[in-house]
Amino acid sequence: MTSPHISEQLAHDGWRQHTPRGFTGLVGPLWSRTHDDMLSFGVLMGEQHLNPAGVVHGGMLTTLLDQVLSTAAWQVNGRLPCVTIQFDSQFLSAVKAGDFVEARAEIIKTTRELVFTRGELLVLNSRVATGSAVLKVLRPG
Fold first, then answer.
1. What pLDDT is recorded for position 115?
2. What is the Cβ-side half-sphere exposure of residue 129, based on CA atoms within 13 angstroms?
3. 73-99: pLDDT as tens digits
4. What is the Cα–Cα distance from 84 to 136, expressed in whole angstroms?
5. Which of 41, 42, 98, 104 lies 20 to 30 angstroms, CA to CA, from 35?
6. How confident is the model at residue 1 (pLDDT cuts 50, 70, 90)?
7. Do residues 92 and 128 make contact, with C-beta atoms less than 8 angstroms apart?
């Protein structure tokens, strides 16, 4: 659970709290903001995000990264649904309970059917993970 002090600071810094539907709603609460035309997501890591070694589970970090990459693909395609068909990640350092992890995305290239993305996870502006994904646009018809 996010303490009121941390929530107030995040709100002051332009973050908005969300509880998304589905799986992503289970790993939050999720925070978002747009800064310098870049969408970011964030999660304040808690005890529920830790693995048996006492650091944030890699699955939690890849879920956060996949969420920001797929949302960026969704936005660039006029809010058409997109699904991840390929995902790579690299963990650079451990994340602890109490860390606020920010996820940022960049669109590399789009085609009619595919979106190529890359992103990073940061704690206090220090990169803790990077990744890339290819997403397929689900067009009606």
1. 98
2. 25
3. 999 999 999 999 999 999 999 999 999
4. 6
5. 98
6. very low
7. yes
Sheet holding 126-137, edge to edge: 16-18, 30-35, 38-44, 100-110, 114-123, 126-137, 82-91
Q: Which residues contact 68 (CB under 8 A, 6 or more apart)?
A: 39, 40, 41, 103, 104, 105, 119
User: What is the rounded CA–CA span in Å between residue 47 and residue 55?
Assistant: 9
Mean pLDDT of 7-16: 92
**Buried/exposed 59-82: b ≥16 CB within 10 Å, e otherwise:** ebbbbbbbbbbbbbbbebbeeeeb
What are the pLDDT digits (tens) for 25-39?
A: 888 889 999 877 788
Q: What is the CATH number of the domain that holds 18?
A: 3.10.129.10
The count of structural domains within the chain is: 1
Beta pairing partners, 40: 33, 104
pTM (predicted TM-score): 0.92
Q: What residue numbers bound the domain in which 118 lies? A: 4-137
Question: In this model, does residue 69 exceed pLDDT 90?
Answer: yes
CA 99 – CA 95 distance, rounded (Å): 7
The residue type of 57 is: H
